[in-house]
Design brief:
heterodimer, A: mainly alpha, MetI-like fold, two-stranded antiparallel sheet, 12 helices, B: alpha+beta, D-Maltodextrin-Binding Protein, domain 2, Dipeptide-binding Protein, domain 1, four-stranded antiparallel β-sheet, 19 strands
Chain lengths: 308, 556
């Protein structure tokens, strides 16, 4: 009997496609996830469009301040006579699409502050959690006690400490989201690791003589990715809130480039004379957070069902 | 050259014509505002003879309202701050509480004119180095003791004692401690200045300068003894303060009985957002120092009245001349040319203010010399910057960082300037922090926006900010490090010149120097507001946000 082996590239193509198809099938089998995804895609599209076009330059003071919505300014103008819709559009970029590094000349990297913040939290929290869960004993005690101490602080206090100590800027906000998000991720990953490390394939890897780092990074974490992914999606929602909260406290991203939280804070001062100005950025934050949460919830439901 | 008439003098002439003030009041007022006696008489002659006098704002309103009524409570939203020794007051909120109980020797009114208060009169020697202060007689403290020169001497001793830590000590730097303060008799005090100064009456109205009882021990909350119209009933920090009317106050009301008209003042410690909501709900009557957004929120409320007053408060874009690129006057001038003053005023202060000329002299100052308001000129700015860039071998746009704080109108000014300066060749990065973040470094940043408070006299701000000390080093508040020998010399001259016309000439020269090579851009002077229910009368909007409630009355 002869056996023929297909070249690896031919074998992997259908595999990847299949996996993508399976992932999409999971998303599309949940109505909740579809609605969430639609909202997220809407804002992503708005953000991408705003990279090339907005009705008016978002920082240009072209109109009278605090104008109500009209054909010229569909969402009215803010307290500095800037077009609110143009600023809402551009505000999407900093949340989802781009991060400005405080370099001279300024460098912009793809991926918004919320996205990088969550990536930071997942990386830091994931590494700490997998170490605590896998190593156990004193390492577990020390890591988790320190992280619990962080969790004990109110999140806003941690934001204030970080921003006051380090200043303002996109990277600082990313750091704030990372520091406040990492303990939660670590707790989740530790729990998953403690379960996974009882499985036979971990024993097999240890018997093969693999290093602890190999077992943690190549055997444990990939098998925990489903819950971590769902948690990360939820954390994008928290991160958007965090950016909004920092902006609202006047500690967020530096003006004049728009971010939704700062827009709410600015408009709040004029709430009696121009109440709609506070509504638009609030709605933007709320819809994007709801979209991300619905998507994550839908995914969790379907993944759980799929695993059963 | 025709004589410049102070705008307030023109308003006074109008009031005279309509019978709101007496001829004598008008003449005193006009001459204090720098109008020459001849011109003042000529202006007065245009009014009908024998116009009836009604000097008090409250009385004027009483006629319209059908008579003053007594009683009622005024509730004000203001932070109730810790207060101990009034000489140490460093915030206006606390000073406004103390001001209800204790009073000053002089009073600078909303018209920016300083008049006697607990004093009956003052007299300066020709060289303005000896000042004789005469106290009113028969004024009693709320413990029954009569106010005498001993109380004034004690108050001076507290202001001038370094152990007490009063900001009066620096302000009265022309006094050699109590060696310069002399009790002539029970109602007369003489100040022998070590150097001449025309600002003595204004300095005696600096907010910590309330007159204390000679037995005061150092804690005002425990020992609230004063000559004022109200007595302290309760003072709970960060909660509330309650003041009750005093039955034997020395000033008399229009109805022939002692002031005040109100029974009670209640201060409620809330932040401004909460105060605005409480006013709209009728839970408070007014709030301390409304912000532009509070003004916008309340100005159209049909139950409220808004009184506004022009001031010398300003937000100064200041440049450090000892650091690049601000050491080059072309760059400083270019930045000044990038101010579209009307637009900055409209965007950051609802258009509520007077445009300015990049000098620390406001039209409300008595000796202000009028100059044209510079136009927005980005092309001119760019030409200057191109010249600078070619010489220095740098590229345009010129990258600079503008630092400021985020609690008042500074962020709006900064953002407006960033946009306005872009076509002029500047690329401004904004570094906006919470207030303490800026106050920690306000004298250090190369480019910043700093708020400078109202001072009633034209010669009061420049010595704090634009000169050097005796050793030639910039004075501590000289945040720009700009020291100009010609400016310093002329300023010293102005400080010795009581005659308004002569001083206006000098101030005009100082304004020209500032515009030509000075270190600040100043787009406008702010208005301040008092917002009250229409049922309150006699409310005064003061440029320094000082409360005067002794003649306020409430329609019952």
């Amino acid at each position: 009997m002869t056996t023929t082996t297909a070249p690896p590239e031919l074998e992997s193509q259908p595999g990847r496609l299949n996996r993508l198809r399976e992932a999409l099938a999971i998303v599309f089998s949940s109505r909740t996830a579809v609605v969430g995804l639609a909202i997220v895609i809407f804002w992503l599209a708005i953000g991408v469009i705003s990279l090339f076009w907005t009705p008016y330059p978002p920082n240009a003071q072209l109109f009278d301040p605090n104008l109500p919505p009209s054909a010229v300014n569909v969402m009215g103008t803010d307290h500095l006579g800037r077009d609110t819709w143009s600023r809402i559009m551009a505000g999407t970029q900093v949340v989802l699409l781009k991060t400005r590094l405080a370099t001279d000349p300024r460098v912009v990297i793809p991926g918004g502050v919320a996205i990088w913040g969550v990536i930071g939290a997942v990386l830091v929290g994931g590494l700490l959690g997998v170490n605590a869960g896998y190593r156990g004993g004193a390492a577990d005690q020390v890591i988790m006690q320190v992280l619990d101490a962080f969790i004990a602080f109110p999140v806003i206090v941690l934001y204030l400490v970080i921003v006051t100590a380090l200043g303002r800027g996109d990277v600082i906000v990313i750091l704030a989201i990372t520091v406040t998000g990492a303990p939660g991720v670590a707790r989740l990953v530790r729990g998953l690791t403690m379960d996974i490390k009882t499985h036979d394939y971990i024993r097999a890897a240890e018997t093969r003589g693999e290093s602890k780092w190999y077992v943690m990074l190549w055997e444990t974490l990939p098998n925990a990715r489903g819950p971590i992914l769902v948690d990360a999606m939820l954390r994008v929602g928290y991160a958007i809130f965090a950016i909004g909260t920092l902006g609202f406290l006047g500690l967020g991203l530096p003006p004049p480039d728009p971010d939704w939280g700062s827009m709410v804070n600015d408009a709040r001062k004029y709430i009696y004379s121009n109440p709609l100005a506070i509504l638009w950025p609030s709605l933007a934050i709320a819809t994007l957070v709801i979209g991300v949460n619905l998507f994550a919830d839908g995914l969790r439901e379907e993944i759980t069902r799929y695993q059963r | 050259m025709s004589e410049r008439i102070h705008p307030l003098a023109l308003q006074a002439a109008d009031k005279l014509e309509r019978g709101r003030i007496s001829r004598r009041d008008f003449l005193r007022y006009a001459t204090l505002l720098g109008v020459s006696v001849g011109t003042a008489y000529a202006m007065a002659a245009c009014a009908p003879a024998g116009a009836p006098a009604a000097s008090e704002a409250a009385a004027g309103e009483a006629g319209a309202a059908g008579g003053i009524t007594r009683g009622g409570t005024l509730r004000k939203g203001v932070l109730v701050q810790p207060v101990d020794h009034p000489a140490r007051l460093s915030w206006l909120e606390g000073a406004n509480a103390v001001r209800l109980v204790n009073e000053y020797l002089t009073e600078t009114g909303p018209d920016n004119i300083t008049r006697p208060y607990l004093l009956e009169s003052w007299e300066a020697s020709d060289d303005v180095q000896t000042w004789t202060l005469k106290l009113r007689q028969g004024i009693k403290f709320n413990n029954g003791d009569e106010l005498t020169a001993d109380d004034v001497m004690y108050s001076f001793s507290q202001w001038l004692d370094p152990e007490v830590g009063s900001s009066m000590l620096g302000l009265l730097s022309y006094l050699d401690g109590m060696n310069s303060v002399e009790k002539v008799d029970d109602y007369t005090i003489r100040l022998n200045l070590t150097s001449p100064n025309i600002g003595v009456p204004e300095h005696l109205f600096h907010y910590p300068a309330v007159i204390l009882h000679r037995d005061f021990q150092g804690d005002w909350v425990k020992q609230p003894i004063g000559t004022g119209a109200f007595t302290l009933e309760e003072y709970i920090e960060s909660e509330r303060a309650i003041f009750k009317a005093r039955p034997d106050y020395w000033r008399m009301g229009e109805d022939g009985k002692p002031l005040p008209y109100l029974d009670e003042i209640v201060m409620v410690s809330v932040d401004k957002d909460a105060a605005v909501a409480a006013i709209q709900a009728g839970q408070l009557d007014t709030l301390f120092k409304p912000r532009p957004s509070d003004f916008l929120a309340l100005k159209d409320n049909p139950d409220l009245q808004v009184k506004s007053v022009a001031t010398a408060n300003c937000f100064v874009v200041r440049m450090r001349v000892d650091q690049e690129p601000w050491d080059d006057n072309r760059v400083r001038t270019a930045m000044k040319m990038c101010q579209d003053r009307q637009k900055i005023l409209d965007l950051s202060y609802n258009g509520e203010g007077i445009l300015s000329i990049d000098a620390p002299f406001s039209p409300v100052h008595p000796a202000y010399a009028e100059r044209p308001i510079p136009a927005y000129d980005p092309e001119g700015a760019r030409a200057l910057l191109e010249e600078y860039a070619a010489e220095k071998g740098v590229d345009l746009p010129l990258k600079v960082t503008l630092a400021t704080k985020n609690d008042l109108s500074e962020p709006e000014i900064a953002q407006a300037l960033k946009e306005l300066a872009a076509p002029g060749g500047f690329e401004i990065a904004l570094d906006i922090t919470e207030p303490n973040g800026y106050w920690d470094r306000w004298t250090e940043v190369p480019l910043g926006i700093t708020i400078w408070a109202h001072r009633p006299l034209d010669t009061m701000t420049p010595p704090l900010a634009y000169i050097a000390d005796a050793d030639g080093a910039p004075v501590p508040w000289n945040e720009t490090r700009w020291v100009d020998p010609e400016f310093s010399e002329k300023l010293a001259q102005a400080e010795l010149t009581l005659d308004i016309e002569a001083r206006r000439q000098i101030i005009g020269d100082l304004e020209d120097i500032m515009q030509e090579r000075g270190p600040i851009g100043n787009s406008y002077w702010t208005n301040e507001w008092e917002i009250f229910p229409k049922s309150f009368h006699g409310v005064i909007a003061h440029p320094s946000n000082f409360d005067f409630f002794y003649a306020v009355w409430k329609q019952q």
